[in-house]
Amino acid sequence: MHHKTLKAVAAGLGLLALPVLTGCGSTGGKSSADAKTVTLVSHNSWSVSKNVLADFEKRSGYHVRVLEDGDAGQAVNKAILTKDNPQGDVFFGVDNTLLSRALDNGLFQPYTAKGLDRVGAAYQLDKDKHRVTPVDYGDICVNYDKAWFAEHRLTPPQSFADLAEPRYKNLLVTENTATSSPGLGFLLGSAASYGDKGWPDYWKKLKANGVKVVDGWDQAYYQEFSGSSQGRKAGGDRPLVVSYASSPPAEVIYAKKRPGTAPTGVATGTCFRQTEFAGVLGNAANPKGAKAFVDFLVSKEFQQDMPLNMYVYPVVRDAKVPAEFTEFGPAAEHPETLAPGKIAANRDQWVKTWTSLVLK
User: Fold this and answer.
1) In angstroms, rounded to a whole number, what is the distance separating the alpha carbons of residues 140 and 245?
2) Geometric angle at alpha carbon 355, from 162 and 238, rounded to 5°
3) How many whole angstroms separate alpha carbon 79 and alpha carbon 69?
4) β-bridge mates for residue 94, sequence order
5) How, if at all, do strands 172-175 and 264-266 pair?
6) Shortest CA distance to 183 belongs to which of 157, 219, 158, 222?
7) What predicted TM-score, i.e. pTM, was given to this entire model?
8) Residues with Cβ within 8 Å of residue 29, at least 6 apart in sequence
9) Looking at residue 66, what is its pLDDT?
């Protein structure tokens, strides 16, 4: 999410092609200045069912253009650079790790979405000003390879502290905090758990315990991790990986032959919660269309469609979560969180400290 969502799992396993909506339904020369076109700017994990988007277009009278702009960090940075003359009208995909940067740079204009009262209070991180609207949440957590742990008669780790224990030496692969959203989320989770002063010592222990760091989620999950179907094919030998709480249901849904249980599990004491937001861009050419689209993002129809497209959880109380999620990938009950302002104040320095501790 955002992060890299598990739409990537579908692509990686090559078993189900989800619709790629870049430039969706674009009629070429139309710009968002056209009052009937609303342009969504998002990260490359954006996905929605065609019929759900078509319903919105039919009901609202707006035609939706989609511009996907790399991962969440790239998309937010580009939106900030172009804010005086934005590429679109509405932005989706800024999460709590990037939120303060976007708000401090004046990226969005205030708008109170219709249906906001159905969104859980815990997700409303800008509730006084309503510059952004919560859309989804997900948990970055360590996943484990069930078969590997059963074979080695070892209990899988459940907490941050467990991961530094000698019995889990050389088992964990994580992502670079400077180049990867889940990598950063895992660092933030450890900082929330051990505090500003305690997390560097924790990472020294992880390093001494043989943690492996790779650039991004694709490499960690598909090549190094022994528990994913791709990782098994690639000869991955790490039975612990930093991924998402929604990775196990994805493994079930995209398996050629559907297993009765997920091949991977989640270490629930290692989770960091990411919430994703949408907002009307400050200088949107079509603010009216953008507002209608934000309303759509918190509608029951979109919220119930979202989990199996983007592998995230809905934020509205009345949305049903797919059975696969409740059975194989329930959200963490007590995830770590950090206030967006605290993340903004410390993020760059923490990443620098982490890099000198872990990569040098």
Assistant:
1) 6
2) 45
3) 9
4) 277
5) unpaired
6) 219
7) 0.86
8) none
9) 96
What's the token pair of residue 8?
């990537």
Residue with tokens 């937010």: 76
Paired strand residues for 64 = 38
Q: Which residues of 68-102 are buried (b: 16+ CB within 10 A; e: fewer)?
A: bbebbbebbbbbeebbeebbbbbbbbbbbbbbbbb
Residue identified by tokens 């990867």 is 180
d(CA 140, CA 337): 11
In angstroms, the CA 313 to CA 38 distance is 25
Average pLDDT per 10 consecutive residues for the chain, totaling 360 residues: 43 34 39 77 93 97 92 87 95 93 95 96 94 97 98 98 98 93 95 96 98 94 95 95 95 87 95 97 97 98 96 95 89 92 94 96
Q: Could you give phi then psi for residue 225, rounded to 5 degrees?
A: -85, 125
Taking alpha carbons only, the member of 158, 166, 175, 142 closest to residue 264 is 142
Q: Which two tokens stand for residue 318?
A: 């009345």
Gap between the Cα atoms of 342 and 218, Å rounded? 28
- What single letter denotes the amino acid at residue 317? R
Residue 259 exposed, middle or buried by CB count within 10 Å (0-12, 13-18, 19+): exposed
**Chain position carrying tokens 């209070």:** 121
How far apart, in whole angstroms, are the C-alpha atoms of residue 169 and residue 38? 51
For 174, half-sphere exposure in the C-beta direction (CA atoms, 13 angstrom radius) is: 30
